[in-house]
Amino acid sequence: MGCLLRWTALIWTVNVIPCTIGMAVSERTDGSCPPLSVEEHRFTDVLDRPLDITGFDLTEKFLLRKGTITEDLPSYRLGSSPLIKPTKEIFPNGLSSEYSLVTIFRVRRTTKKDRWYLWQIFDQSGDSQVSVVVDGGKKAVEFFSRGELKNALRYTFKSRDLHALFDRQWHKLGVSVQSNIVSIYLDCKLIERRLTDEKDSVDFRGRTLITTRVEDGRPIDIELRQILIYCDPYMAEMENCCELQEPKSEANQTFNGTAPPPVAAQLPQMLSLPAAKSIDRCHCPAEKADTGEAGLSGDPGHEGELGSEGQKGIDGEKVSTTISSRHIFHT
After folding, report:
1. pLDDT tens, 57-88?
2. What is the C-alpha separation between 324 and 331, in angstroms, rounded?
3. Nearest to residue 100, comparing CAs of 1, 3, 173?
4. Any residues with CB less than 8 A from the CB of 293 and at least 6 apart, and which?
């Protein structure tokens, strides 16, 4: 009987454990997200376990630029034409249910009070499925998603720390989307976290747009450097703000990965979560300074001590002093 129980336990272990491992791996490597090459200096150096970064560069997807930029990020003046494409062209194999959106932009004087979609996906019927709205009138950022019951889930972030986003300077805005949490980052500082209800899956047969006014669907007049979507909700937290420093860093190496930070302890069940204590997240490589002027000549050195007596040399060959008679005769 004991032998039979041991065999039963062994068979259960062999069959169940691989299935469990397979499910855990497939959740992170479902093939929906392609590799994403980004600059090495974009991230803090607190992690030491490499992991391939995956995601989408919407700056390239909407043809604002093509190829890999090896210099400081250029900026693009938007507002002349609508930026909208079929969602399948932007996310050919779909999008992870947890992700980070990170963008660098600045509003202009004529649009700093406008309400506009930074990013939106809507279905075939034109109904919004997920979006991030920047509201200049309220100085707020909104995250919208359709819930599991097809209800609207809308979360508005109105912290005073977001007011700087509308001062017409360059800023980095990050949105981290997890299964039950949405976090907002501004200039690499956590502003606020909100608990959310379960979100519905996205239908990718519709269309996707960026930088479009909510009121009339016209393109918004802003300056944009980049919009990235990482297939990892922790990447918004790992970003630093070296690109916003003056003078800009010259680092432009390609960075292919970093590990996510440890999962935090279970969050308390409250509607709004306080922001964590801000830390310095920018570890930017120092720029090489100009060569300085030549220094003054130094003082003469002290006279050296008398050296020790050298070794005795080798005896030389003996030279004959006899003069031949023939030499004398001819002389």
Report:
1. 999 999 886 544 444 567 788 887 889 999 99
2. 11
3. 173
4. none
